[in-house]
Amino acid sequence: MKKVLVFIALCICSSVFAQNKPGKELLIKKAKGLIKLDGILDESDWATADIAKDFFMNYPVDTALAQFQSEAKLTYDDHFLYVSFVCYDDNKPDIIQSLRRDFDFDLNDNMGVFIGPYNDGINGFYFILTPRGIQEEGTINSAGSGGDSYNSTWDNKWYSKVVKLSDRWIAEMAIPFKSFRFKSNLKEWNITFLRHDLKRNIFSSWVATPIQFIPASFAYSGKLKWEDPSPSGHTNISVIPYLAGGSSIDSQKNPTEKNQQLNAGFDAKIGVTPSLNLDLSFNPDFSQVEVDRQVINLTRFEFKFPERRQFFLENSDIFDKIGFPDTRAFFSRRIGLVDTSSSKSSNKSYQKVPIVYGARLSGSINKNWRISALNMQTKEKLEFGLPRQNYSVVALQRNFWKQSNFSLSYVEKQSLGIRSGDSIKYFNKDLWRSPTFGNSKANVLNNFNRVLGADLEVLSKDNKWYSSIFYSRSFDNFNNSAQQAGAAFLSYTKRHYSFVAGKSFIEKNYNAEVGYVPSIGVYPGLTSSFAGATATIYPKHTSIATMGSSLDVNMTNLPNGTNTDKSVVLGSTINFLNTSNVQAYYSYTFQRLTNNFNLLDDSYTGFKKDETYAWRNLVVSYRSDQRTIFKYSIGVRSGGFYNGELFNLNGELNYRYQPYGSLSVKFDYNDVNLPANYGQEKLFIVSPRLDLTFTDKIFFTTFVQYNKLYDNMNLNARFQWRYQPASDFFVVYTENYYTNDYKSKNRALVFKLTYWLNI
C-alpha cells in the first residue's frame, strides 16, 4: 500500500513539475543546410533543433499531460521561417470537415504555431495545419485573450507538407518572412503551440494554461530565443493584379436592363520595414467575396455583418477596437457599401459603391508603438444619391506593461464637390440631418463627419483582470453640442467564477457615420449599465466536462433618468465530453419606446413612442456531438413579445462526406402573434448549402437563401481554383427570385482572376 501511495504521489508530482510555465524558452538556430519540405525531418538541422515538448492539457481538464503528445521545432534561413510538428496518434480516424483552406478551427483536428514577432505580448500571427495538410492562417490581437482576438480571414502565402503514419502525423511549414510582419533584430519573440485533438475533444498546448483561459494567448506563451538576431528586412513588395468581368440582367426595371463589364485593378503590399506595411488598392473588386448570411431581425437595431474583404483585414484590430461593441467609431463596411433599405427597417439592404483607390499604412513602429492610417475614395453614385466621398482613419497605439495599450484615433468622411444647390441631386439620408440629432435645422446638408477618440485597454499578465475605457466626440456641420460618447468596462476571471460590469453613455447628437452605433436614431441620447456573473464547476468521473450558470442584468436610461430598457437573463450551460452541449435561458425584458416603429410592415399598426411593454421568454438549445458524420443543432424560444407572443425555432442540420464536403440546412422560423391590428406573421429563412472541396485547391459552394420577410430567394454559386499560393480564379453566379412564382428578379455571372506576384 505504501508503494502504491508513493507511485501516485510521483505521478502527481511529475504532472505538476512537467508543466511548461509562461516564459519557457525555445532556442532557434539558423539552418546550415537546405530544408526540403517533405514531412520526413531527416535534415541535420532538425536533429539539432531545440524541441518544444511535454504538452499539457487545457480542456476538458487542465491537470495532466496530454495522452498523445506533440513536439515542435523551428529553424530558419534568410528567406523562410521553418516549423515542424510531430503529433503522436493512433489509428483512430481524423476528423476533417473538408479540404478547404481557412477551415473552422473548432471542427477539425489540427496543430498550429502562434507567434508574437513584435514581442509586445499583444499582437501576432498564427499558422495551422490539419492532418490532411489543409492550411489556415490568421492574425492575433488583444494578446489572444478573447475569442474575437483571432481573425482567420487574413490571407497570405506560405508552404507546407504533411505525412500521415500509423502512430503519428508529421508536418513541415515554410513561412516566408515576406508573408508576415515582424520587428527585425529582436533577440526573442512570443511563441506557443496549440493542438486540437477533436476526435478525443482535447486541447493541449506547449505552455500549461488554466482551463478558463485560451491556451494560445500570449499570457501563456513561451519565448523564442534567437541564437542570432532575427533576420533583417529585405525588399518586400507584392503585387496582386486582377481581371474581372461579367454579365447581369435586372428584370425589375422596365425595360429590362442588361449590363456587361470588364474591370481590371490591383492590390499591392509594400514592406516599408519588416514590421510596417503599406497596402495599396486601385479600382478594387470584391465580387468573389462570400455573400452575407441573411437574418430575420425583429429588433429596433441594425444587425452587424462581418467584414470579409481582404484589403481591410491585416492589422484591422487597431481600427475595429476603437470604442465599444455598441459604439464603434469605425466600421469598414461603411466604405463601398450603402444602405438602401427603408429608414424604418432594422433589416438592412446593402448595395455596392465603386471604390476608386485605397491606401493603408499599418504595423509596428517599434516595440511600444503601432500605427494604422487609411485613406479611401469612392465614386459618385447618383442612383443612391451619393457624391464622391473620401474616408480617412488614423489610429496611434502605445503599448505598455505586459499586455496593455493606449490609443488615439481620428475618423473622417468628407463628401466632395457638394454645393448648396445640390440638395435634390444628392438627396440621401446619409447626407442629411436626421430628426434624431438634437435641435439642428431641417434640410441641412451634411458634407463632413469627424470623430476623435481615445481608448485604454489594461490586461493583467495572467489574463485575470481586464479593463477598458474609451471617450469619443463627433463633429459635423449641423451640431455643436451634446456630441460625446464614452464607456468603462471591467472583468475578473477565475477558475470557478467570473464577473463583468460596465457603464456607457451616448449623447443625443453623437454622430459616427463611418462607425457602428445602432442606438443612433433609436434613442435621443442614453446611459447604459450592465453587470454579469458566471459560476462554473468541473464534475469528475461523469460524461460532463463543465457546468455553468450565469446572471446578466442590463439597464438603459435617457439623460433625464427615465428608464427605457431593462433586461434580466438567468442561464445555464452544460458541456459534455462528447462535444455536445445544452443551454437554457430565462429572461425578463422591459421597454419604454423612444421612437415610433413598425415591427412587421406599414400595413399594420405600429408601436408608438412612450408606450411601455414587458415580457418573459424561455430559450432552450441543444448541439449534438460535433464529431459525427451527421450533426445538428436546434433552439427553441417561447414567450411574450411586446403586446403579443413570439415562438422561434432555429437550427442547422449538417451531413459531411469527409473530407470532400458537406450538405447543410440552416433554418430560422418565427411565429409572431400580436393583436390583430398589430400583425400576425410566420417569418422564416431556410438556407441550404452544398460545400464541395474536390481537392485542397478546387472548391465549389452553392448557397440558397429563402427569406419570407424579404419575399426573396437568393441563389449564390461560387467556384474557386487556387492555382498558385494566394492566387485564385473565381466564377460566381447569383440570382434573386420572387417567392410566390419564382420568377427571376435579377441575375449575374461574374469571373475574377488574381495572381500574387512577389517582387
Write up this protein.
Residues 1-16 and 431-444 have low confidence and may be disordered. The protein is mainly β. The chain is built from 3 helices and 42 strands. Among the domains are: 2-226, Immunoglobulin-like (Sandwich); 309-339 and 366-537, Porin (Beta Barrel). A hairpin with a 6-residue loop joins strand 29 and strand 30 (544-557). The strands form 4 sheets. The protein has a 24-stranded antiparallel β-barrel. Strands 1, 2, 3, 4, 5, 6, 7, 8, 9, 10, 11, 12 and 13 form a 13-stranded mixed sheet that branches.
Task: Give the averaged pLDDT, no decimals.
Answer: 90
Biggest sheet record: 24 strands, antiparallel, barrel
Q: Say what the CATH topology of the domain at 2-226 is.
A: Immunoglobulin-like
Label the structural class.
mainly beta
Shape: globular
**Low-pLDDT stretches:** 1-16, 431-444
Q: In CATH terms, what is the architecture of the domain at 2-226?
A: Sandwich
Provide the helix percentage.
under 10%
Distance between the termini: 71 Å
Query: How many beta-strand segments?
Result: 42
Radius of gyration of CA atoms, rounded to a whole number:
27 Å
Fraction of residues in β-strands: over 45%
Write the layout of secondary structure elements.
Layout: H1 2-17, E1 25-30, H2 44-48, E2 56-59, E3 70-76, E4 80-88, E5 110-116, E6 124-129, E7 135-140, E8 150-151, E9 159-164, E10 168-176, E11 188-197, E12 202-205, E13 222-226, E14 237-250, E15 257-273, E16 276-282, H3 317-320, E17 323-324, E18 327-328, E19 337-339, E20 350-352, E21 355-364, E22 369-378, E23 389-400, E24 404-415, E25 448-459, E26 465-476, E27 484-493, E28 497-506, E29 526-537, E30 544-557, E31 563-576, E32 581-592, E33 612-623, E34 630-641, E35 644-657, E36 661-673, E37 680-693, E38 698-707, E39 712-724, E40 727-737, E41 744-754, E42 757-758
Parallel strand pairs: 1-3, 1-13
Antiparallel strand pairs: 2-12, 3-4, 4-10, 5-6, 5-11, 6-7, 7-8, 9-10, 11-12, 11-13, 14-15, 14-41, 14-42, 15-16, 16-21, 17-18, 19-20, 21-22, 22-23, 23-24, 24-25, 25-26, 26-27, 27-28, 28-29, 29-30, 30-31, 31-32, 32-33, 33-34, 34-35, 35-36, 36-37, 37-38, 38-39, 39-40, 40-41
